[in-house]
Design goal:
This protein has helices spanning 62-65, 91-95, 110-117, 121-127, 142-154, 169-176, 191-198, 203-215, 233-244, 262-268, 282-293, and strands spanning 4-14, 22-27, 48-51, 71-75, 78-81, 101-104, 106-109, 130-135, 158-163, 181-185, 219-225, 251-256, 299-301. The chain is globular. A 9-stranded mixed β-sheet has the order 7-1-2-8-9-10-11-12-13. Strands 3-6 form a two-stranded antiparallel sheet. A two-stranded antiparallel ribbon has the order 4-5. Strand 11, helix 9 and strand 12 (251-256) form a beta-alpha-beta unit. By secondary structure, the protein is of the alpha/beta class. Helix 3 (110-117) packs across helix 5 (142-154), helix 5 packs parallel to helix 6 (169-176) and helix 6 (169-176) packs parallel to helix 8 (203-215). It has 2 domains: 4-45 and 106-301, Aldolase class I (TIM Barrel), CATH 3.20.20; 48-103, Alpha-Beta Plaits. Helices cover 32% and strands 23% of the residues.
Length: 304
């Protein structure tokens, strides 16, 4: 039987998620709830219904086709949606003439995903690119991630993963060792502050990073630089202290905060808690990198 997993997006022609031109396969499910998450639709493992109120004309064609009664007319062209009753069957998606609804997340086989990514194999070869598994959190679906990475390798494709590091150590290593490159997020050096920002402490994450550095030769730490959350000089010096006590010091990529995913919270009916937070520019990232470089740590500032 073919191995299957839940995928919520496949993005082609990426240039910032590993070497060369790459295809990103986004797996659903993540144990973290980062305040700045740009893919909130990735957090839950199961498929979800996204609703764009700006596209909705309140024609109410979705109401009679909903088999669970999650959608009801509230009178005067108004619409009521009971999330607890929604089974995400997709009937309302097909009934909507304006594309106001869509299901995020699809169960896909390894063969299906591989067939899609192989379409760009000539571009991978020309640019020394390949495939990157992101999310969500790819180690949250370890069997599917491993099978997909093995399939990529069997076709000679360069493979990478992006991980938050909060996973069972054996599961994380079993996935990471099938990847040519690992991009490992560290959100904050202090565990209590890490919990405030992401919902989980950081001890397991740092332990997994340490274990990974013993066995994998290509690990890059990514640090999301978020104003007011983890961008102070003290925050960055604490990060440097953590990195200097690792088995070896990895390259750090500074990822500047952006608001590209803010609208997705509206589609999910959730508030965006960092509303009004200024974005980071290249200068902010370079200044943060400079602090790490003062401690002898290699650091590169990414751009959007």
């Amino acid at each position: 039987m073919s191995t299957s997993g839940v995928v919520f997006d496949i993005q082609r022609y990426s240039l910032q998620d590993g070497p060369g031109l790459r295809t990103l396969v986004f797996l659903k499910g993540c144990p973290l709830r980062c305040l700045w998450c740009s893919n909130p639709e990735s957090q839950r493992l199961e498929p979800q219904l996204l609703y764009d109120g700006d596209r909705c004309t309140l024609c109410l064609r979705c109401v009679p086709v909903c088999p669970s009664g999650a959608l009801t007319s509230a009178g005067e062209g108004a619409l009521s949606y009971d999330l607890t009753r929604c089974t995400c069957c997709g009937a309302c998606v097909h009934a909507c003439p304006n594309g106001a609804r869509r299901v995020c997340g699809e169960t896909m086989t390894v063969e299906h995903v591989l067939g899609l990514v192989l379409r760009d194999a000539p571009f991978y070869r020309r640019s020394a690119g390949g495939v990157t598994l992101g999310g969500g959190e790819p180690t949250g679906q370890p069997q599917f991630a491993r099978a997909l990475l093995e399939a990529c390798r069997s076709h000679g494709l360069d493979a990478a993963i992006e991980t938050c590091g909060y996973a069972d150590t054996r599961a994380l290593l079993s996935v990471a060792m099938l990847a040519d490159h690992v991009f490992f997020d560290v959100k904050h050096a202090d565990s209590a502050r890490h919990r405030e920002l992401t919902g989980v402490p950081n001890e397991l994450i740092l332990d997994n990073l340490r274990a990974l550095l013993y066995v994998h030769n290509d690990v890059t730490v990514r640090y999301p630089l978020v104003p007011g959350c983890n961008d102070s000089g003290d925050d960055l010096r604490a990060l440097a202290h953590r990195l200097l006590h690792l088995p070896r010091i990895p390259l750090v990529e500074m990822v500047p905060y952006h608001r590209f995913g803010e609208h997705k919270y509206r589609l999910l009916g959730r508030p965006y808690t960092l509303e009004g937070t200024p974005v980071c520019d290249k200068q902010n990232s370079e200044q943060a990198c400079a602090i790490l470089k003062q401690h002898g740590i290699r650091c590169a500032a990414l751009v959007h």
